[in-house]
Structure formats: structure tokens, C-alpha cells
């Protein structure tokens, strides 16, 4: 009797499970980028409200240059293309965006941003009530944090961003870093750049981009701060130009090439120092 009861009970469980799976099959749909399950699909693009990154950098230049911040009170929008995200683990709680006039960083207090904010994805940002400022004079869009520019919450970000149905890699403008970096620092700060024939300091066939992170230990490695490691580029002084790699980057334990390479990355700044952020291992290419 007990065996019969057990078999009947097991059969009921299997039948219920099959019905549940069937229901998921009926309800599940592929992500529709015309109405994605991320962001605020109610934001309507208005040509009258659109501003450019250059407009923002000009209007809020005082706050940016003073490493301060200012809340945006006007009903304005920004249409931009994602050029960098956290897929490689080297860009943390940020996405990098550009339009035809420049580039900037968006600080978001969340991780795993890349699935809907992939490189080439176009987005529309409702700027009203967000903050803009300078983190070490690096232009950043976000929110106020302890009297400075910081990251906005993921909830606030999703309230202020709409994922547009356009994904276009051709919209990304890669800049030759060595030809413009020192002559147009304001415009190209935060931009995707290309650096050809670059020698990365400390390359000896064994040195990695960053050491393995070990919880509870103090990292003292080649000018590192807060879990980041710095390497020189082309022998430049570290107070002018450096390669900045997180110990959490997926390519952190990759051995630094001993020969010159071509690098792609986001050119950020901390005051007068350029900090190049490689987005993923694919940004490191043999010449």
C-alpha cells in the first residue's frame, strides 16, 4: 500500500512539473528591444529637449573643473551610444557613452550592466534630477554622494534611461590617442581610444596585468590603489599616462606582452593624469 501511494504521489509531482514547464514555454518570449524589460520605456524622445555631451560639458564646466557637482534642473535629454561597460570586469559600476560631440562616464551603483548596455547600444537618458560633475575633473553623470559626484542607484538609473531599438557599432568613433589627447583633453575625456605600437611597462614574460585579489590582504603592487594596478605606457611618467587595471578584471592574470601591441580602451583622467581602461582582453591586439 505504501509503495502504491508513493508511486501515485510521485506521478502527481511529475505531472505538476510538466504543466509548470509548459506554462513557462507558453509565456516566455525573446527579449524585444523595442520594448525591453530594462529601463523606462515611457520616456519619449523630444527633439526640443535633446542636448549633446559637448553642451553638458560647456554648461557645467565650472562644476566639472572644480571636481564638484550640480543637479540638472532642466527638462533635457541625452541620446548616446554605449562604448564601454563592465563585461570585462575592469570598468566597475559605470558605463561609458559617447555621441558625435564627445564622451563621458555614467556612474551606476550596480553590476552586471552589460547585457542590456552592450557596446554599440543606443540609449536615451532623461537628465532632469540627475547630477553632473567632475571626479578628479573626469566628467561623470550620476548622483550626489557626500557632497561630491557619485553613482546613482540602479533604481534611479532605470527610471531615467530608455534602451532604444538601435544597436549600431558604426556610431562608435575610435580616436587615435596620441594625436589628440594633449590637444583636446576636455572633448576626448571618457572616449574610446586606440593606441598603436605601445610598450607596457614591467613586461618581462612573467608579470601580469594585475595580481590575484586575496580578501583581507593589503595590495602593494606597482603603484596600485584600491584594488587597481598601474603600469606605464611607452615609458611615460605615471603622473601623466598609465594603464589602470582592476584586480577583478577577467584578464588581470594575463601575462603582459613583451612586444609592442595595439591597445583599445577608455581614456579617463584623474586631474592631469590619463588613465587608460581596457574594456576586455579583446582590446589587447598584436601589431
Short summary of the structure?
This protein is of the alpha+beta class and 287 residues long. Helix content is 18%, strand content 34%.
Portion in strands: 25-35%
Sum up the overall morphology in one term.
globular
| Helix coverage percent | 10-25%
Classify the fold: give the CATH topology of the largest domain.
Answer: OB fold (Dihydrolipoamide Acetyltransferase, E2P)
Radius of gyration: 23 Å
Distance between the termini: 76 Å
Number of domains: 2
* Individual helix count: 6
Q: Quick one: how many beta strands?
A: 18
CATH architecture of the largest domain: Beta Barrel
pLDDT below 50 for ≥5 consecutive residues: which ranges? 1-31
Tell me the CATH superfamily of the largest domain: Nucleic acid-binding proteins
Description:
This protein is of the alpha+beta class. The strands form two sheets. Strands 1, 2, 3, 4, 5, 6, 7, 8, 9, 10 and 11 form an eleven-stranded mixed sheet that branches. Strands 12, 13, 14, 15, 16, 17 and 18 form a seven-stranded mixed sheet that branches. It has two domains: 122 residues, Beta Barrel (OB fold (Dihydrolipoamide Acetyltransferase, E2P)), CATH 2.40.50.140; 112 residues, OB fold (Dihydrolipoamide Acetyltransferase, E2P) (Beta Barrel). It has six helices and 18 strands.
Amino acid at each position: 500500500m505504501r509503495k502504491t501511494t508513493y508511486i501515485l504521489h510521485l506521478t502527481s509531482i511529475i505531472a505538476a512539473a510538466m504543466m509548470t514547464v509548459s506554462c513557462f514555454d507558453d509565456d516566455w518570449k525573446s527579449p524585444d528591444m523595442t520594448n525591453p524589460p530594462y529601463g523606462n520605456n515611457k520616456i519619449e524622445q523630444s527633439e526640443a529637449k535633446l542636448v549633446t555631451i559637448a553642451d553638458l560639458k560647456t554648461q557645467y564646466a565650472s562644476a566639472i573643473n572644480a571636481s564638484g557637482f550640480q543637479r540638472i534642473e532642466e527638462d533635457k535629454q541625452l541620446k548616446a551610444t554605449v562604448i564601454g561597460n563592465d563585461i570585462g570586469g575592469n570598468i566597475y559600476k559605470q558605463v561609458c557613452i559617447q555621441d558625435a560631440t564627445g564622451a563621458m562616464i555614467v556612474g551606476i551603483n550596480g553590476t552586471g550592466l552589460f547585457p542590456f548596455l552592450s557596446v554599440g547600444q543606443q540609449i536615451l537618458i532623461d537628465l532632469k534630477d540627475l547630477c553632473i560633475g567632475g571626479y578628479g575633473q573626469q566628467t561623470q553623470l550620476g548622483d550626489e554622494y557626500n557632497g561630491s559626484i557619485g553613482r546613482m542607484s540602479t533604481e534611479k538609473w532605470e527610471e531615467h534611461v530608455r534602451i532604444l531599438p538601435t544597436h549600431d557599432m558604426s556610431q562608435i568613433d575610435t580616436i587615435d590617442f596620441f594625436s589628440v589627447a594633449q590637444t583636446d583633453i576636455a572633448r576626448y575625456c571618457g572616449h574610446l581610444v586606440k593606441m598603436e605600437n605601445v610598450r607596457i611597462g614591467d613586461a618581462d614574460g612573467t608579470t601580469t596585468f594585475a595580481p590575484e585579489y586575496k580578501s583581507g590582504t593589503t595590495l602593494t603592487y606597482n603603484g596600485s590603489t584600491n584594488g587597481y594596478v598601474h603600469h606605464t605606457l611607452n615609458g611615460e611618467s605615471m603622473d601623466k599616462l598609465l594603464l589602470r587595471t582592476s584586480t577583478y578584471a577577467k584578464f588581470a592574470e594575463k601575462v603582459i606582452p613583451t612586444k609592442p601591441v595595439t591597445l583599445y580602451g577608455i581614456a579617463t583622467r584623474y586631474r592631469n593624469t590619463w588613465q587608460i581602461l581596457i574594456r576586455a582582453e579583446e582590446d589587447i591586439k598584436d601589431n
